[in-house]
Amino acid sequence: MHAVNVMIVDDDDITLTLLEHIVDELVTGEILVFSSSIKANAFLLSEDAQRIGLVICDWQMPSVSGIKILETLRTKSKNCPFLMITANPTKDLVISAKRLGVTDFIAKPFSSDDLTQKLSVLLEKISPT
């Protein structure tokens, strides 16, 4: 288990629940869940954003995109790992996200095992067990 606070952002409730369940198995820290990208972006603009150690975020969401969430995070934290979830990993998305400092990607649909493996690698870098 890793003592890391994790922020999860996805407008799909089923994906959000799955992500929260998997993260809950890996961390002892707080898990902040946002189904609204507007609220997630506002949170990242607040002072409370400093307590986040990992962000997991969908790319395509209404109102505020995952790229915008990543941009906002990078204004506050250059080193916080960011896992981008996308159903459409186009070359343009990958280039834009890499330029902004995305840490890793996972494509939808993903298996629980694939997500757990990616998260375990990221969490080990943040908070070795």
UniProtKB/TrEMBL annotation:
GO terms for biological process: phosphorelay signal transduction system. The keyword DNA-binding does not apply. SUPFAM superfamilies: CheY-like. Gene3D superfamilies: 3.40.50.2300. The keyword Phosphoprotein applies. Keywords: Phosphoprotein, Two-component regulatory system. Pfam families: Response_reg. The modification 4-aspartylphosphate is found at residue 58. Residues 5-123 form the Response regulatory domain. It comes from the Bacteria. This is Chemotaxis protein CheY. It comes from Paraglaciecola polaris LMG 21857. The lineage of its organism: Bacteria, Pseudomonadati, Pseudomonadota, Gammaproteobacteria, Alteromonadales. The gene is cheY.
